[in-house]
């Protein structure tokens, strides 16, 4: 049972898009090293944790974008809570509420974002006083994108994405996100990437993947036009192969004036860069009217990573 004295802790965490994602050759463990530019955008999940009694389980409930979100021990937020509990030597339970706006299996790291938020929320709810370094270490243990969800902003990611370097860029950017009705599992997209790159038209792999100079220059200058032209994702071809309709989504967004567009992460979300708030509104209306995608949302970035916030109004 939840203690009457327990105070819920809410942490708000952003989704991400990959402005540039380049893969190196597959390593012996089956994973590809990557070079990427993570960019946190204002599409948020709220994770609310309430501490419960000694010996109680860690439970999770989901509100909002619920389809496909596990509510058992495979949920990354549950894994994060158990990791905090183990590191702190506790046996306390917790109730975790996920109030989701980040699409599930949409290439925006929603599950990783929830794990990052759960680390901070459980630390606060249980009073474990973990250091920032400990939280980042646990984030890297949980998954490649979890570390970035803690940090936010814009950052270079290397290795599997857990090695982060902040990008001291300029500018604030307006994004229009074309969401699909159903998600696209990351493992399926990587498997398709491997299949495609083993064919006769295989793209030569770099020994070490690297972010394009044009991308870094655009970010340093805060140049939206150059940034739109530099958007890139090695997984985009694989996502198009699995979901051919995504190519049409990209074409429609560019036709209606987006400065650039790219599949976010492993997809199927397609992110379009708009020149300003007004163009983002126009592009949102055009994409919605075209019927090529399930839902259209607007966001801006960069925004900070996971932070303690006010409780959601509807609980």
How would you characterize this protein structure?
The chain has 315 residues and is an alpha+beta fold. It has ten helices and twelve strands. Strands 1, 2, 3, 4, 5, 6, 8 and 12 form an eight-stranded mixed sheet that branches. Strands 9-10-7-11 form a four-stranded antiparallel sheet, with helices on both faces. A hairpin with a 4-residue loop joins β5 and β6 (163-166).
* Contiguous uncertain segments of 5+ residues: none
Radius of gyration from CA coordinates? 19 Å
The rounded distance between the terminal residues' Cα atoms is 18 Å
Average pLDDT, all residues = 91
Q: Quaternary status of these chains? A: single chain
The CATH homologous superfamily corresponds to: GHMP kinase, C-terminal domain
Q: How would you sum up the global shape? A: globular
Tally of extended strands? 12
Record the SSE blueprint:
Blueprint: E1 9-23, E2 34-54, E3 58-64, H1 76-88, E4 92-100, H2 110-126, H3 132-142, H4 146-151, E5 154-158, E6 163-166, E7 173-179, H5 186-197, H6 213-221, H7 224-230, E8 232-233, H8 236-242, H9 245-255, E9 260-263, E10 270-274, H10 277-290, E11 295-301, E12 307-309
Parallel strand pairs: 1-8, 3-4
Antiparallel strand pairs: 1-2, 1-12, 2-4, 2-5, 5-6, 7-10, 7-11, 9-10
């Amino acid at each position: 049972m939840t203690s009457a004295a327990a105070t819920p802790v809410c942490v708000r965490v952003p989704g991400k898009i990959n402005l540039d994602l380049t893969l190196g050759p597959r390593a012996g463990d089956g994973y590809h090293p990557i070079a990427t530019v993570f960019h946190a955008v204002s599409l948020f999940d709220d994770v609310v944790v309430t501490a419960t009694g000694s010996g109680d389980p860690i439970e999770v409930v989901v509100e909002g974008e619920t389809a496909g979100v596990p509510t058992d021990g495979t949920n990354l937020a549950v894994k994060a809570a158990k990791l905090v509990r183990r590191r702190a030597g506790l046996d306390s339970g917790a109730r975790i509420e996920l109030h989701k706006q980040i699409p599930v299996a949409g290439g925006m790291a929603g599950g990783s974002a929830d794990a990052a938020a759960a680390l901070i929320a459980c630390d606060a709810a249980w009073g474990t006083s973990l250091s920032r370094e400990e939280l980042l270490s646990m984030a890297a243990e949980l998954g490649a994108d979890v570390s970035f969800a803690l940090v936010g902003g814009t950052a270079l990611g290397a290795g599997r994405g857990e090695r982060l370097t902040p990008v001291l860029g300029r500018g604030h950017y307006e994004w229009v996100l074309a969401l699909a009705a159903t998600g696209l599992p990351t493992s399926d997209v990587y498997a398709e990437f491997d299949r495609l790159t083993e064919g006769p038209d295989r793209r030569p792999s770099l020994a070490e993947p690297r972010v394009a100079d044009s991308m870094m220059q655009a970010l340093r200058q805060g140049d939206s036009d150059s940034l739109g032209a530099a958007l890139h994702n090695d997984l985009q071809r694989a996502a198009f192969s699995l979901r051919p309709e995504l190519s049409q989504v990209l074409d429609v967004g560019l036709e209606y004036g987006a400065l650039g567009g790219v599949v976010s992460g492993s997809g199927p979300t397609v992110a379009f860069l708009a020149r300003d708030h007004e163009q983002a509104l126009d592009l949102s209306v055009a994409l919605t009217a075209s019927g090529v995608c399930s839902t259209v949302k607007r966001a801006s970035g960069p925004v900070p990573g996971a932070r303690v916030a006010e409780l959601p109004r509807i609980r």
